[in-house]
Amino acid sequence: MAKENQFVNQIADIETDFPRWYTDVVTKTKLVDYGPVKGTMVIRPYGYAIWENIQKELDARIKATGHQNAYFPLLIPYSYMTREAEHVEGFAPEVAVVTVGGGEKLAEPLVIRPTSETIFGEMYSKWLQSYRDLPILINQWANVMRWEKTTRPFLRTSEFLWQEGHTAHATEEEAMEETMKMLGVYKEFAENCLAIPVFTGRKTEKEKFAGAVATFGMEAMMHDGKSLQAGTSHYLGQNFAKAFDIQFLDKDGTHKYAYTTSWGVSTRLIGALIMAHGDQRGLVLPPVVAPVQAIIVPIAAKKEGVLEAAAELKAKLVAAGVRADCDTTDNSPGWKFNEWEMKGVPVRIEIGPRDIEAGKMVLVRRDTHEKTEAPLADAADAVKKLLAEVQQNLFDMAKKRKEERIVTAETVEELLKGVEGGNFVKAGWCGCRECEDKIKEQTAATARVIVEGEHAEKCVCCGKEAKEVVLFARAY
Amino acid sequence: MAKENQFVNQIADIETDFPRWYTDVVTKTKLVDYGPVKGTMVIRPYGYAIWENIQKELDARIKATGHQNAYFPLLIPYSYMTREAEHVEGFAPEVAVVTVGGGEKLAEPLVIRPTSETIFGEMYSKWLQSYRDLPILINQWANVMRWEKTTRPFLRTSEFLWQEGHTAHATEEEAMEETMKMLGVYKEFAENCLAIPVFTGRKTEKEKFAGAVATFGMEAMMHDGKSLQAGTSHYLGQNFAKAFDIQFLDKDGTHKYAYTTSWGVSTRLIGALIMAHGDQRGLVLPPVVAPVQAIIVPIAAKKEGVLEAAAELKAKLVAAGVRADCDTTDNSPGWKFNEWEMKGVPVRIEIGPRDIEAGKMVLVRRDTHEKTEAPLADAADAVKKLLAEVQQNLFDMAKKRKEERIVTAETVEELLKGVEGGNFVKAGWCGCRECEDKIKEQTAATARVIVEGEHAEKCVCCGKEAKEVVLFARAY
Fold first, then answer.
1. How confident is the model at residue B9, as a pLDDT?
2. Of residues B33, B49, B96, nearest to A101 (C-beta)
3. Residue B22 has what DSSP assignment?
């Protein structure tokens, strides 16, 4: 165990120095590295494989709800940004600007998309003619860029990868239905694929997307009790339709502005996974998105027949649809155990001469460290069953934390105490921006979402009548 | 048939005005639209679905040959471009430059990647330590930007999508083997998925990638006899290793520079598909990459049971893995036939009351317009068989054209006559740049690839001893 401890010691303590733990884990497991330009990241193969699994699962859901993928240009004329007043105010300060192309100064500066409502708007205005063309339901997987001052891999980087859906509808009702539908898709995806239970709800005016009528977000509780905004769905009303002239000829023969929505999740989700499930030994990846679901470690690998049996087992698992790999390096089994635990592989399979003789294998779960045995003849079913159990248990543990760590507050002092203790705090709010600002100033907590269907007497800050119950938390 | 002719007339004549035919087809079939920034394109859902199919097929091949995907940053410090002398000479004139970020002028200008050898080189230098770390085999799917003066959708756009593989190896032999292996992967993919036979071979010094020791390309013959460079694989020797200090400690205890390669194909392949297989009625898409493989057109759709039978047929085909759709719009069958022919759907299925009664369907191939019947009970197998036949026939037709349209030339006049007649021309070449330039000037043809294993007496241009046989063609 000496070796293991030595290894564990390379990762900062998860309880006392969570930010450093995060940095240690993302770099040591080779998920990511820092790019040469400040604030950029290189997503390394192990990290990108998680993103590919996220894409696969989410893309299927986006298509199943009737959307098609497309690709819109990276560069947007600067003037487009200025057409929607709130939008330019929100995004202009953080854009990267191209001023030179092909050796010449450009007549108009171009921004690298920080988000694509404007360029989708421009094209939709061109494509949309009649009510028969509606709804337009398009998604794209793309890179975007927002010039950030403080950056951390996956959580906040100047360039990141995401999907952004942009839809146009004939009526307010349909657009609102779409907005909520996609929020629901995100929630189901987060819970069933990432094993992360989330809070969903409307954002306050202060926290909403620049240019939206209303933003709905999903918030996930991290290991330290802070919140991470894991996805948003925006009801844009006619704001962008008016700014970009997205009109259609309706059944009644009159021209009307469309109602639009947009919604997105990004490589931030990888940060969410890490901080929701990780432990002192490193990553703990949910099987659905883990690049390697089962790692086979041969014991006494030089003994006759061991590597062959391991290879055969791997082939059997792969054929059954398990993402299995076999570590055939000449490192010691103990070193391999640590390495793959740090990398968060959900199930480790140990197989040595005695196991082979007895026709069995040893299975070790990453989440509970529980050891079991299973017959080799039944390998694929046993591993699949265990993977499903790990997936469920990760969700259950995260859900338990989420439920245990919600407190209520009647005063700003209580709210402060709550978030300092690593909790989400429910509190009444009068609805005014002044109180929201004051709460942030005094507690470093922000309004994450407005809680539906709950009631409070007084605003936690000013004591006046509460209009809403708000979920407050410190956030990434 | 009046309606059909009317429809066909909307597309320019393929024989007399191929460039206009191309533009008509890509826009009318909604593959693509022009972006607001000059030279950019919006890849619309129908076009993007082709790209997704290309990605799926090619990505599987890239992974099967041991490569992993990753994602490297979009922005590259300008100074990186200058480290490899040929590279900066080739790419600096066509980069887009970011000079402002977050409202402030940047200390160092950043280029939007025109290709990523430099930033991969920088990271490989950081990651690579020992020979045990080799080979490094990484690919990325990404957008790149090259500021082009004359642009055409898919063929030449300032921004395009591609994959770029970047590998590092311990020896020259291994790197060269990788270069040729990926050229082979591209060829197999082009022939079996895109149904496009290709010429592969080494490029001349003039035509090689800026910074490569040697470039190998694959060239495809288009409908008009011009060539399209459909993919390239570069052996970079130690050029980038030296420029970016990619060194490793070898078994013998000494530090050595690695040998690197890079290889890529792009959304140009969609242009290749269109121009290799298209006809007067529009697109003709190979089944392997067609977004819709079989379109069901209900006949007398208002008659009882027709739409139900069509829906049932669609469900059956989809369940069998066929990308099938059913056109339930209220357009006439004739209009639908034209529409889906223009969109290049490989197989059309007609189903009406009499067919349903007889338990059969009518199948119409897009490539030969041949009509056959098949029992509904056997629908999936019949459609799959027909799709395989269409795929094979498209390849055979393209191969026949490729073989028929190769001529040889002894003089520049003959070479000119050859390319003017829509041919590829094989000719001897002395190996000097002067002749290559002169040939281009006089014939508008360029050296596409050097032909292996063939011999010519004299250079087609200067008459001196020929060192190589070169395949000349006018090219996109």
1. 55
2. B96
3. H
Inter-CA distances, B48 with A165, B51, B275, Å: 15, 5, 17
Does the pLDDT of residue B301 top 70, yes or no? yes
Contacts of B62 in chain A (CB under 8 A): none
Considering only CB atoms, which chain A residues are within 8 Å of B72?
35, 42-43
In this structure, how many other beta carbons lie within 10 angstroms of the beta carbon of residue A253?
A: 6
Q: How confident is the model at residue B10 (pLDDT cuts 50, 70, 90)?
A: confident
Backbone dihedral region for residue A446 (phi beyond 0: left; psi -120 to 50: alpha; all else: beta): beta
Please state whether beta strands A446-451 and B247-249 pair in parallel, antiparallel, or not at all (unpaired): unpaired
Q: Taking a C-beta distance cutoff of 8 angstroms, is the pair B189, B58 a contact?
A: yes
Number of CB atoms found within 10 A of residue B253's CB: 6
**Closest in B35, B71, B101 to A96, CB measured:** B101
Q: In which residue ranges of chain A is pLDDT below 50?
A: 1-6
Is A151 in contact with A251 (CB distance < 8 Å)? Answer: no
Q: DSSP code of A279?
A: B
As given in the structure block, the two tokens for residue B32 are 């693509």
The residues near B296 (Cβ < 8 Å, ≥ 6 apart) are B310, B313, B314, B324, B325, B326, B327, B349, B351
Strands (E), B192-226: 198-202, 214-221
In terms of pLDDT, which residue wins out, B3 or A375? A375
Phi, psi of A370 (to 5 degrees): -65, 135
- Tell me: the pLDDT tens digits for A430-451? 999 999 999 999 999 999 999 9
Predicted complex ipTM exceeds 0.90:
yes
What are phi and psi for residue B251, nearest 5 degrees?
-55, -35
Best to test chain B binding among A75, A91, A112, A143 (most B CBs inside 10 Å): A75
CB-nearest to A43 from B47, B70, B77 is: B70
Q: Does A76 sit within 8 Å of B36, measured CB to CB?
A: yes
Burial state string for A446-471 with b = 16 or more CB within 10 A and e = fewer than 16? bbbbbbeeeebebbbbeeeebebbbb
The answer to whether the Cβ–Cβ distance between B69 and A49 falls below 8 Å is yes
On chain A, the residues whose CB falls within 8 A of the CB of B73 are 35-37, 40-42, 159
Angle (CA) B386-B390-B394 rounded to 5° is 170
Residue A416: CA count within 13 A, CB half-sphere: 11
State percent of chain B over pLDDT 70. 98
Exposed e or buried b per residue across A94-132, where buried means at least 16 C-beta atoms within 10 angstroms of its C-beta: bbbbbbbbbeeebeebbbbbbbbbbbbbbbbbeebeebe
Q: CA B234, CA B237: separation in Å to the nearest integer?
A: 9
pLDDT at A10: 86
What kind and span of H or E run contains B113? none
Q: Using DSSP bridges, classify how beta strands B255-257 and B247-249 pair: parallel, antiparallel or unpaired.
A: antiparallel
User: Phi and psi at residue B99, in whole multiples of 5°?
Assistant: -115, -15
Q: Which of A41, A74, A101 sits opposite B143 (nearest CB)?
A: A74
Test mutation, B33, B71, B108, B244, chain A, max A CBs within 10 A: B71
In angstroms, the CA B283 to CA B285 distance is 6
pLDDT tens digits for range B37-52: 999 999 999 999 999 9
Q: How confident is residue B5, by pLDDT bands cut at 50, 70 and 90?
A: very low
Q: What distance, in Å, lies between the first and last C-alpha atoms of chain B?
A: 35
Mean pLDDT for B279-299 is: 98
Q: If you count residue pairs, one on A and one on B, with CB atoms under 8 Å apart, how many are there? A: 165
Residue A5: per-residue pLDDT: 45
**C-alpha to C-alpha distance for B227 and B272, rounded to whole angstroms:** 9
